[in-house]
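Please, structure for the following, as tokens.
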Amino acid sequence: MAQVRTNNPAEHAGAKKDGTGNIPDRAGIGAKYLYPHMINRHMKRGMQKRTPTVGKSIEKEVHDYTALIKTSFRKLEDNPVLFVPNGLALLTSFVLAFGLLYMTGILRVIIAVPVTLTKGVYLATAIYALMAANPIRFWGIVVLYLLAEFFVSLFFVTTKYGMIKEVILTGKTTIARGFAFGKKHLLNVVGIYFASLLMIMVPIVIFLLLGLLLLPYSLLAGMLVLGLFILLGLLYACFIIYRLVFVYPVMAFEREGAMKSIKDDFHYVKTHVGHTFITWIVLMCFGVVYVILRSPIDVLRSFATSGYVIIALTGVIMVLEVLVTTWEHIFVFKSYLAGKGQRKHR
């Protein structure tokens, strides 16, 4: 058996420590039992280096999300081309609406009917006459208009997603790159839209039907159950919208189809609970700010008597909405990548 050469701690003061924080057992006996005061000092110093305080951790989290917000605003400020899809979508909507009015004959009726207090009644009567004269043609044009408006609006939304992706990855983008992304991923966005709509609406309709079925048996109980089911349906809808907050960034960055994007989005939210919650809170706060800023404009528009004033105030609301929604998209896309980076470096 090896013998201990000395009990003097000073002899081993310069001994190197291994990766576990223990002094090598050169004497054949565990040195941590002979010199516990040395081990305690060493372990305390290691813990202080490796374990941040709660206050510093919270401060770092706040700094990270503040930086995300500022970066999103900076990306929006440096790339005004991101507003082009919204402008093109608005222009296209006006063209499609004009085509609808012209092809159905409603535009001629609007021009022919004089401006009187009963103009609304005349218009309704004339439009009903146009519909009754050739209902298949009339409703066929309306259906074509609705389909065109739906796909065109989603195409420009997809274009905007592609441009935001380019801005985040490279710092700049072009409308041509956005169009290329839109043509490639339009069907994915359409699929996500309908899948999300079904996920939200089907359970809500089931809740409403269950509540309505109880009404003939007991009016009071049926009303209570119907109110409870409506509340459950709203909570469920909010939960699904919360779970789908990153579905479009997943589709854009991971280049996946509709159902795979929804599946991966659910997994991402499940594994990034805190990050998703804070992102959602930021979005809700900016939504409240938007409502506060819009409220006085809505009040002014309701009291306005001049058509030009109403049009101007409506334009201000549309510009404000485009600014807020574009920033929200940039923030969500940027937050998705930030969450992946946090997970990777843990």
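The radius of gyration is 32 Å. The chain has three domains: 11-47, 82-256, 269-346.
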